[in-house]
Design goal:
1 helix, seven-stranded mixed β-sheet, mainly beta, OB fold (Dihydrolipoamide Acetyltransferase, E2P), 106 residues, globular
Length: 106
């Protein structure tokens, strides 16, 4: 994988894929168009969401629509998934953030 943050790789692939009618996209991250699947390490929780570092150690501040991050361990491995909306350089909106197994990052 390149040194680019995983959410940025996904966003680039998503833009390309939406230009192909009926096309199906599987990125290096295992994501489909319109969906995000990212595994990272939760490093901080706030009232707005959770800060996640991806495999490149880039920080992605995740804000969930269903903010159910209270039971997540920090630091701990998390999986971010759902419909994606990128805002600014380091903020994504996702449907869900849940605990993940370390093996998903390897």
């Amino acid at each position: 994988m390149s040194g680019e943050p995983s959410w940025r790789l996904f966003a680039v692939e998503l833009r390309r894929a939406t230009q192909v009618a009926g096309g199906r996209l599987i990125t290096e991250l295992g994501a489909n168009p319109g969906r995000l699947f990212m595994v990272g390490i939760a490093t901080m929780k706030t009232d707005r969401g959770i800060e996640v570092r991806d495999h490149t150690d880039s920080i992605v501040f995740t804000i969930t629509r269903r903010t159910e991050v209270g039971d997540l361990e920090v630091p701990g491995y998390v999986m971010v998934h759902g419909n994606l909306r990128v805002q600014g350089a380091q903020t994504i909106f996702a449907d869900y953030v849940m605990r993940a197994d370390r093996s998903l990052m390897e």
